[in-house]
Structures are given as structure tokens and as C-alpha cells.
């Protein structure tokens, strides 16, 4: 056999064993041989290599019925890392994520309103490099960077096609970050990566058809079918904020009239409030409602009605098993949750669909985009065979 064929098979076998343990742990060496069809000797050798390079833990467990202890293998979640980044209008979150989707180091950076993309991306790159250095993470174990941001994203090209919130157009995010960090970079819409985090480790774990709906500075959604993000023709499936709900309604920032988000998005609610009383934030609006001010109740009740309408429309369109609600409106003001549930199940959701899905809330809240972005990078770039070769070269 040629040398490069041997190298290829070695890499492939290491990857097979690692993936097998990662997805089915705990497993014994005998289980792995049986499941992969490899010889016990080969399995033993690969497991020792993985163990010596710190990819595995051994745990002792009683085997059922036999009554004696056996040794099982489990992946060390900190043996493979990735970086997750969330770019928002006024802030950036950076986190180092392990294989279990846990944030094991993080950093926040401020962003100026309308800051140019190259300035923001340089800040992100130095933030990432700084975090890796500060916490002394092993760069060889970092598979890459995932970035989540609002807007329409070319996920295969790593570009922001259009992000109205950030003021970015055709921005090459992956290219610039790779240049400054030396790491591979995957980019996607923030709600798409957030739904990935909820699907893998959060509120929608075990679901086969889930929809995540975000109510914040805009309104958007992401659909996961059988573990895959549904992207549509131009990766813009789920942009429900610009579905028209009233052709005679209010002008939207997109230039159309009566878009859904003109009734729910934060800026719209504040703008409407200002017709009655000068307020600067949602906190003040909710405060006014708590004090029994009628106008504040009207604005919030109408917004919650549109939230319920959105959930019921989505249930009709996709027939999901789980609807995850996320975003400032439902996370910072949990008093709205009961109202939404009542409106949905008492009024808007079509009767045959009631009871076919559960409404849940994000398990990760503010960390969701960072975790999902990190998991996106792991799913895109993890090549355990190649990483082991690098780690071996000490
Ligand atoms: Zn619009």
C-alpha cells in the first residue's frame, strides 16, 4: 500500500472511532469493534492514541446483569474547541465553546452605532486572539470560528449579503477574520445558529421539527427539520418580519407597508409609545403598563396579539412539534408568556393543531447565538484525524 493511502486510512479510522464514541458514549472497546466492524486490535490501538492525546476519558460502570465493572469510554468535551461570535448592533459577544456546547471562556466588546465593518471585524479578531491568549487555550484544538449576525447571509461564501441592523452590505466576514486569526470561519444568520444550539443541547433537544421565533429588534424565525436548518433558495427562509399583515398599516424600515415587525419590533413599540409619552426603552413601556397606564397596555396587548398570530400562522405552515420563543420581548418581560399562551390556545391556533406542538422558551437566552455559532464551526470544520496529527507534533 502507498504511504499516503495508509495515512488516509489511519485518519479515517481515527475519525470513525472518535465519532462513534462521541455520538454513542459510553461505549466499551468491544462495543466499538462490534459497531464499526474493525478488529479489536485496531480499535485498541486507536483508542490508546485518542486517550494519550487527551480526547478520551475512561469511566468504570457496572454492566447490566453481570454485576462486575467494565471500562467505558467517553469523549473529553474540552479536547475539541471552537469560537462563537455574536455581532449585534451595539455589542459583540465572543465565547470559546466545547464539544458539549458549553461556553468555557467569553468576552464582550462594545460596538459603535454605524461602525464600519472593517473596524468591527478587526475588533473581533483581536478580541478572539486576546481571549485565546488570556485563557491559554490550545490553538491546535480550536477547529474554527462561527459568526452569527442579523440579516441575509451567504453562508457558503461567509458573507453578509445585507444586514440592515448593522448597516452592512456584501461584507466578507470570513475572509477578514481568517486573515487576522488564521482560523477557518463559518458565518450564518443569528436565528439559524440559535436554533441549532436549541436543537442540539437546549429546549428543542430531541425534536424533529422545530421552529425558533425571535422577537427583538426585528422579528425572524428559523426552521429545523430532521436536524437540518431549512435555508430556502437564498438562505433567507424564515424572514417572517417582512410578511405583510396589514396592507393599510404602518410603513416599515424595509420600505413596504404593514410588515409584521412594525407591530412587534422594539423600535416600533417605542415609536408608538412616543405618540403619547416620551419614553426611551421597552423597560419604560412595561413600567407604564405595570402602573396601569391604559395606552401602554394597549400597545403591549396588540404586540402580544401579533405574537400569537405569528405562532398560529407558523403552526399552520409547518406543523412543527416544538415552537421556541426567544428575544428580548419574551425573555426580559416574562409576564407576557401567560398572555401569549392564552391568546394562542384560546383564540388563534386552529383547533386541530392545538396540542400538536409545545411552546417553549430558549434554554440559552443571551448565550444562544454564541453557542450556536460555535457549534456551526464544529460541524463545518471538525476533522479529528488532521487535528490529532497536529496535536501529536509536540
Ligand atoms: Zn418590512
TrEMBL record:
The keyword Aminoacyl-tRNA synthetase appears for this protein: no
InterPro entries, alphabetized: ATPase_NBD, ROK, WH-like_DNA-bd_sf, WH_DNA-bd_sf
Pfam families assigned: HTH_24, ROK
BP terms from Gene Ontology: D-xylose metabolic process
Keywords noted in UniProt: Carbohydrate metabolism, Xylose metabolism
Highest taxon in the source lineage: Bacteria
Biological role: Transcriptional repressor of xylose-utilizing enzymes.
Family annotation (PANTHER family): BIFUNCTIONAL UDP-N-ACETYLGLUCOSAMINE 2-EPIMERASE_N-ACETYLMANNOSAMINE KINASE (PTHR18964:SF149), ROK (REPRESSOR, ORF, KINASE) FAMILY (PTHR18964)
Similarity-based family: Belongs to the ROK (NagC/XylR) family.
Protein name: ROK family protein
